[in-house]
Amino acid sequence: DREQSDGSEEEDDSDAKSGGEVQGGENVERGEDRAMLKDIGVAAEELTPIYIKCENCEEEFDVRSNERGDCVWHPGDKELADDSSFWDDHDWQCHGDPNDFVDDAAYDEGFIYSCCEKSGGAEGCKVTRHK
């Protein structure tokens, strides 16, 4: 990976392939559709989007249109910001362990990412292709 001037990283061309497989025959076309496409000179594969889930951002993407910059994510973990004033009024005995709220967007300001030390609600610090 190469680092961009804004501090984010970018994959090089050797990582351009998406690296994922379609499972369970989700993209199998009916035989009659293939025959129709063959009659008009279009390969079925050219029209069939193949969607898989990205390992990094966990969003679905079409492997045939996976461009550099499509995936924005954090390579680090979302951690509790103990010294943040966000938690000043939080009563652990009443409201529970703050770590239980790591996936709740309403509590993003009480967490930071270990990779960039930005707020838990910040846009990803790494920009790549989907994987």
From TrEMBL:
Region (Disordered) location: 1-35
Compositional bias annotation for Acidic residues: 1-14
Name listed for the protein in its UniProt record: C2H2-type domain-containing protein
Organism this protein belongs to: Amylocarpus encephaloides
